Structure formats: C-alpha cells, structure tokens
Amino acid sequence: MRRLGASVLGMEAIVVALMTPVAIMIGKVDPPIAVGVGCGLAVLCIVAAGLLKKPVGYVLGSVVQVLAIASGFMVSTMFFLGVIFGALWVTAILVARRVEGATKR
Predict the structure, then answer these.
(1) Residue 97's pLDDT is what?
(2) Number of folded domains in the chain?
(3) How far apart (Å, rounded) are the C-alpha atoms in residues 94 and 62?
(4) So what's the pLDDT on residue 11?
(5) Which of 1, 31, 54, 78 could lock onto 72 through a cystine, CB 3.0 to 4.6 A?
(6) Which pLDDT belongs to residue 1?
(7) Residue partners of 10: CB distance under 8 A and separation at least 6
(8) In the prediction, which pLDDT does 67 show?
(9) pLDDT of residue 105
C-alpha cells in the first residue's frame, strides 16, 4: 500500500512543483506566493510519502489532495489535475487494501 501511495504522491509532487512557473507566467500570481504554494505543496507530497509507514502519512496525503484541488484558484487547470490525483489517491488506497486482504488469505 505504501508503494502505490508513494508513487501517486511522487508524481503529484512533480506536477505541483511545475505549477509554480505556470502560476507566475500565465496566472500572474506574485512569485513569492506561487513559489510558496507550489514548492510547499511539493514538499508536503514528499513528506507524506515518507510518512506512509504510519497512519498520519495517509491523513497528510489526503490533506495534500484537498490542497492540490484548492491550488486551482491559482492555476485553473489544477482543479482538474487535483481531482485526477485525488481519484488516483483513493484508488491506490482501495486497491492496495484489496491486494493486502487477498494475500493474507
């Protein structure tokens, strides 16, 4: 379950980090705010991926999904990408639980 969740969060970290220049150039967001939100969210993704050994990692990962959707107020495409990553996050958790349940039998 950790591997699948970490994969989703790792890819999401790349996407939200790359959101920073888009927010500055196209969204006309002030650079300090764009860097703070984009890079801060990327760091949260990496921290959450590292904490997936504990239940708090899954809570933080879920919070990251909500924040990724909320970043759509800076770059409107992030509404769509945030929902996609949220769906991948939920799917990763559900599929991993099914696989773990099947391997225990």
Answers:
(1) 79
(2) 1
(3) 13
(4) 96
(5) 78
(6) 73
(7) 45, 46, 49
(8) 96
(9) 63
Quick: pLDDT tens for 50-101.
999 998 999 999 999 999 999 999 999 999 999 999 999 999 889 877 876 6
Count of C-beta atoms within a 10 Å radius of residue 93:
17
Could you give the C-alpha distances from 1 to 35, 74, 88, 95, in angstroms and in order?
A: 31, 31, 13, 8
- Indicate the length of the chain as a whole number: 105
Q: Which domain holds residue 60?
A: 2-104
Residue environment code for 29-68, b if the CB has 16+ CB neighbours within 10 A, otherwise e: beeeebbebbeebbebbbebbebbeeeebbebbeebbebb
Percent with pLDDT over 70 in the chain: 94
Which residues have C-beta within 8 Å of that of residue 95, sequence separation ≥ 6? 4
The two three-digit tokens of residue 55, written as one number: 């239940």
Q: Report angle CA 88, 60, 27 to the nearest 5 degrees.
A: 70
Q: Which two three-digit tokens encode residue 57?
A: 């990692």
